[in-house]
Design goal:
- The protein folds into two domains: 30-115, Leucine Dehydrogenase, chain A, domain 1 (Rossmann fold, 3-Layer(aba) Sandwich); 141-274, 3-Layer(aba) Sandwich (Rossmann fold), CATH 3.40.50.
- The protein is globular and about 55 Å long.
- It is built from ten helices and eleven strands.
- The strands form three sheets. It has a six-stranded parallel beta sheet. The chain has a three-stranded parallel beta sheet with strand order 3-2-4, with helices on both faces. A two-stranded antiparallel ribbon has the order 9-10.
- The chain is of the alpha/beta class and 298 residues long.
- It is 41% helix and 16% strand.
- Bound molecules: NADP nicotinamide-adenine-dinucleotide phosphate.
């Protein structure tokens, strides 16, 4: 069997086109332009590239967006003051604190300072709690993108056995919550594996849906995968490649070559989950702008 390749780029373009239509309609009826501010500390090249693409995605939609940059030496109090100002700014519907932060900053405290209504990353404990309760709230973008890929690809989740490898707050836990929720893209039986899990091949080989989010290049071999399974590879890992002009290339957490011989559908790396993350950030920002407009009417 050769797996169907899930084209995350194409699906993300469709999502963004729909977000644009909805945002244009929202702006026409309310006069409100969605606004997203990305706060970044330091010069980490990967983070710098991510924040630029987030701003560009907003500007492509005709939205308000700025990158607020701080030097590596910034203090906790300075970032707190910045977040307070953004919380109070009516042009700003979404605040994203680009992670990771330098070690001297208290990441959790800063994430908790972002107003939950502007928390487009869905990392605030209030929003994490709402996700667990199945209440409407911003949900972390990558898990939301994974669920959307499954829905758009008509991959059934209801009653299916889904295995998530990785239990981070950013991917593993929230994607497990989404798959557990009632409704489209949910109703799965979910198992979450991590570095202490025993006999992972025996668990993974039962998965109708496998989501790998561990950050270990080609960790999951094709022989672990149930024939016909849907494989969503979240990992983004750099491996040396002398043939590439950059000297490296990106691979996922799944061994694509062998897995694609067994799976029914699989996401490539790059071009699978990655593009969905920014598309869902746009969706979350629009949702926050809508919720803010609705709250100001009450
Ligand atoms: N496509 C995207 O847009 C996107 C977005 C976010 C992340 N990513 C990528 O996804 C990957 C995971 O990101 P993350 O933020 O979730 O990473 P993370 O915070 O480092 O978490 C990794 C998780 O994987 C588990 N793990 C690590 N090695 C393992 C092993 N050998 N066996 C079983 N479990 C293992 C860890 O278990 P313990 O908890 O037991 O340590 C942990 O729960 C990374 O490659 C990252 O770059 C991609």
């Amino acid at each position: 069997m050769t797996a169907r390749i899930i084209d995350g780029k194409l699906i993300a373009e469709r999502v963004r086109a729909k977000v644009k239509t909805d945002a244009d309609e929202f702006r026409a009826t309310t006069g409100i332009t969605p606004g997203l501010i990305v706060v970044i500390v330091g010069q980490n090249p990967a983070s710098q590239a991510y924040v630029k693409s987030k701003k560009k995605a907003c500007l492509d939609l005709g939205w308000f967006s700025e990158i607020h940059e701080f030097p590596e030496t910034v203090t906790q109090a300075e970032i707190e003051a910045e977040i307070s100002a953004l919380n109070a700014d009516p042009r700003v519907h979404g605040i994203l604190l680009q992670l990771p932060l330098p070690k001297h900053l208290d990441e959790q405290q800063l994430l908790e300072q972002i107003a939950p209504a502007k928390d487009v990353d869905g990392f605030h404990p209030v929003n994490v709690g709402k996700l667990a309760l199945g209440l409407p709230a911003p949900v972390p973008c990558t898990p939301l993108g994974i669920q959307r890929l499954l829905i758009e690809e008509n991959i059934p989740t209801s009653g299916k056995f889904a295995v998530v490898i990785g239990r981070s707050h950013i991917v593993g836990k929230p994607v497990a919550q989404l798959l557990l929720q009632k409704g489209p893209g949910g109703d799965a039986t979910v198992c979450v594996c991590h570095s202490r899990s025993k006999d992972m091949p025996a668990i993974v080989c039962q998965a109708d849906i496998l989501i790998a989010a561990i950050g270990q290049p080609r960790f999951v071999p094709g022989e672990w995968i149930k024939p016909g399974a849907a494989v969503i590879d979240v990992g983004i890992n750099r491996v040396d490649d002398a043939a590439s002009p950059k000297g490296y290339r990106l691979v996922g957490d799944v061994d694509f070559e062998s897995a694609s011989q067994v799976a029914g559908a699989i996401t490539p790396v790059p071009g699978g989950v990655g593009p969905m993350t920014i598309a869902m950030l746009m969706q979350n920002t629009l949702n926050c702008a809508r919720a803010s407009a609705a709250a100001s009417k009450r």
